[in-house]
Amino acid sequence: MEARSITVGVFLLVLALLVRHSRSEEFCPNGCHCHYDHDSGDFYVDCSGLGLSELPHFPDTNVQILDLSENMFTFIPPEVAQFSNLRYLDMSSNLISSLPPFSLEGLHSLKQLNLSKNNISNWANLYPNELLQKTPFLEELSLADNQFTSFSSNDIALVLVSASVRYLDLSNCKITKVSGKEVIQGLISLETLKLNGNPLHGISDIKSDTLKTLDLSNCRISTLQSTALSGLSSLAYVNFARNYKLSLSTHGNVTSTSLRRVNLSYCNLDSIELGGFPNLKTAILRGNMIRQLMGNSFVANPLLENIDLSSNSINFVHSDAFWQLSNLKTLDLSFNAIPRIDGRTFKENEMLTQINLSRNYIARLQRIVASSLAHLNMSWCEILSVDADALGAMPSLIDLDLSHNLLYDDPWNIASETLQTLDLSMCRITAIRNTTFSRLPALMRINLSGNRFTTPFRVDFFDSNTYLSEIWLGDNPWRCDCRDSGFLDFFLFLTEPPRRVNDHKQLRCTSPEDFYGATWEAACRSVWYPQDIMGTTERIWTYFMLAILAFFGFFCLYSSIKRFVDSRRKLAAERERQENVEEMREVARENQLRLRQEAQLNAPDARESRPPCYEDAILLPKFDAASFASLDELLLRGKRKKKRRHRQSTGDEGTDGDDETDRVELRQSSRSRSENVLSVRAVVYQEPTDALPAQNSPIYQRPTSNRVVTANVHASPTESRGSRAQPSNDAELHYHSTDILRMDRPATSSPTSSRSVTVSVHQPGPSTSTNQIQDFNSRSYENSPYAKRKVKPLQHINPNGSIEEITDFEGYESSPYAKRRLQHLASFKGDRDRERPPLPARPPPSQGQQLLQDSDDDDDDGDDGGAISIRVVDDYFKPEQSKPDLDDYAVVTEDDVRRNLLEREKQQQSSVATNAGSSGSSSIEIIPARNERQQ
Fold this sequence. Notes:
The protein is an alpha/beta fold. It contains 16 helices and 33 strands. The chain has a 20-stranded mixed sheet. The chain has a five-stranded mixed sheet with strand order 31-33-29-30-32, with helices on one face. The chain has a two-stranded parallel sheet with strand order 7-9. A hairpin with a 6-residue loop joins strand 1 (33-36) and strand 2 (43-46). Helix 8 (630-650) packs antiparallel against helix 9 (655-681) and helix 14 (847-858) packs parallel to helix 15 (894-907). 31% of the residues are buried.
C-alpha cells in the first residue's frame, strides 16, 4: 500500500509539473521566455534584450518576476500595474530619465525594483518624496550606474522617503558628496547603503538608527570627521577598501561604538588605526604598508577575534603584540617578511585556533606556545630545521603544513599526541628513520610526495601509527629492486586492504633503465607473481592461438571491409549509370527541342510544299536563257571562235552573216528549251489505250511506270507559218506562253501578240466544253493552298470553256513566287508594247505538225490566234489524292500525238461551230495511268 501511494504521489507530482509547464508556455508573450519555479511557485517572465518600447500582451497577469532589462523604455509602462502579484521588476539598462510619482502606482506587492544603468541625471527627477509611497512592501531599490551627482538633504523635497526600503544601491554613480544629516532619515527601515564606486571625497555626519552596512569602497575618501559614523547607532560593518589616501586619525580617530567589522584593505596604511572602534571583532588590513606589530597595536580593540594582516610588509612582531586579545581566534600573517616568531607571542591567546605564517622567511621552526592552536601553516617559509620540542607546547595541534620548505633531513624529532595531518611534500627529504613517526600516534594522513626518496621504507617504521590510512608517495625517484623482499612487503603494505596509498599510479620507477617510467606493479609483476607467468610451451601455444584468432579476425574484418567497399562501388556505379542515363535523356530531349525549333524556323512555306496550280504555273517567270542554253551557247561560242580563226586565216569577209546565223541558232535552242519546260508544266494526263501503239521510241520512259503522258501543242497561225522549215521539236510553246500573264489586253493590240489562249478543262469522255467548265467550277478546290488567289480569276471563265480575260491580278504579289517574279514581270511589262522581231525560219514541219498547223490555219479567222484545250482527267486538287509525279509518266512518240489529235479534232467540231472566235485550238490531254499496285 505504501509503495502504491508513493507511486500515485510521484505521478500526481509529475502531472502537476507538466500542467504548470504547459501553462507557462501557453501564457508566455511573443519573444519572451517564461519559467515556472516549482519550489517557490513563482511565474518568471524574461523579456530582456528585445528592444521593446511598449509592454507586450500578457495572456496571464499572474506574474511574480518580470525582467524588462536592456530594452528601449523611457518610463515604467503603466500596464505593469495589472500584475497585482508582481514582486520583482527589473528595468535596468533602459532609457529612463525621470520617474514621475505615479510610475509605481498599482504595484502593491512589489519588493525588489532595479533601475540601474538608466539615464537619470538629476536626483530631483526621481521625485524621492512621492516615488516610493505607492509601494508599501518595497525592500530593495537599485539606482546604480546612473548619472546624478548629489545625494543630500539640503532640500526637504529631495529626501527619499520609504517606510519599507531596507537596501539602497547608489554605487557607480557620479555622486561627489553626501551632505545633510537627514539624507537617509526618510528611509526608516534602511539597513544597507552602497555608495561604492563614486568620486566621493568625504561624507558628512549622517544619521540613521537602522543602518547596519555602509559600503564606501573604491571612492576617493582621504579624511573623515571623527563624528562621521557617530550618528549611525546600529552600524556593524563599514567597507573602506581601496581608498588609497584614507586616514582615520587625521582629525582624530573616527569613532563608532557599534562597529563590529571594518575592511581597510589596500588603503596604503602604514600603521594600524583602529582606536575609535572599541567593539571591533574583525579587522581586515590586507594589502597595506604596515611594517611592525608593536605591543600597543591592538590595545583599543580587546574584542578582536579575526585579524587579517596578509600581504603587508611586516618584518617584526613583538611578543606582546597580541597579549591583550584574549578572544583572538584566527590570525593571518602570510605574505610578509617575518624572520622569526617568539615562542611566547601567542601564549595569552587561549582561544586562538588558526595561524597562517606561510610565505615568510622563517628559517627555523622553534617551540611555539599556543595551547588552543589546531591549524598551523608554515609552508613556503624556507625552513631548514625543526626543533625537537617545536610542537611540544601545542597540545591541540591537528594540522601541520611544512610543505615547500628546504628540509633535507627527516624531522625525526617531531612529537605530538594530537597531530593527525602532516604535510611534508615538495621538500628535500631523502630518507626516514624508524623513529620519525613513532611519536605521532594519532597520525592519519601524511604527504611525502615530491621529495627525494629512492628506496622503499620498512613496514615496521609505521608500527606505532595504527590510525594511518592515507599516504602520498608520488613524484619520487624510486629505484625498483624487485628481488628485494622489503620492496614487496612495503608495496603490499600500501596496496592491500585497507589500501593506504592514494596515488599508486604515481609510484613509478626511475631506475634501472629497463623499468624507467613503469609503475611498481608493472615493473615487478614477473617477480612478485610467478604463478601468473606461463611456461614456454604454454606461451607458444597461447601465441599460436592468438595468432589464429588474430588471422581470422583480420580475415573477417578484411572480408567485411571488402564487401562494404564492393557494395559502395556498385551503388556508385549504379548511381553513375542512372545519372548518365538521365543526362543522355536530357541531352536527347534538348536535341529534339532544338531540332523542332530549327525545323519551325527553317520550315518552308506551306504553300510551296505542293506543286502550283495551273494559273500560278503560267505566272512563273521565264527561265534565263543562259541557264537553259549555257551548254549550247558555249558550243556555239566555240564554233564562232573556230569560224573567226578560219576566216582570219582564209581572209573571208562573211562575218556578219555567220554571226547572224549563230544568233538565230542560239535563239532557237533557248526557245526550244523554254517551250519544253513550259510544256512539262502543262502536260495532260491520259489513260494509255491499245489504240496508241508505241511505234517510235519515246523521248523518256521510266521502266517501272505504267502512266502515259500525251502532250499536243498547236502553235498560232503566225508562228506556224513562220516556222514550217523548223524541225518538229521546235513546235513547242515558249515565247508566246508568257502572253497569258497579260490577258487583260486585247488579242489584236499587237501584231506580234495576236495569239490568244483558250483553256478547256474536262473529265475524260465525250462532252462539250460547256459541260467541262461546269464540272470544273463544281469541283472543290478550297483545299488548295492557292485557293484564295484562285477563286477570283476563275470567275471570269466563260461558259464555253475559254478564258477571255483575266483582268484582276491585284493579289498576285502575295504569291509564294512573287519575289522571284517581280524582276521578270518588270522586264515583260516594259517590252510588251514593243514590236517583237520576227522569228527565224524553221525547217518544214513533220506530218503531225502539218496537221496541227492546218488546223490552226482553218481557225485563223477568229480572235484568238490559237487555242489550247486542256483536259484534266484526275481531280488534282483533291486532298486525299496524291499529286502525280512526273517520273511516274512516260512520254509517247509523235505518231501517238498525231493520232490522238486527229481523234480529238473530230470530237470538237461541234464546239468549234458554236465558238466562232476560237476557231483554231490546241489540245493537251493528261490521262494518268493506273498503277498496277493500286489496282
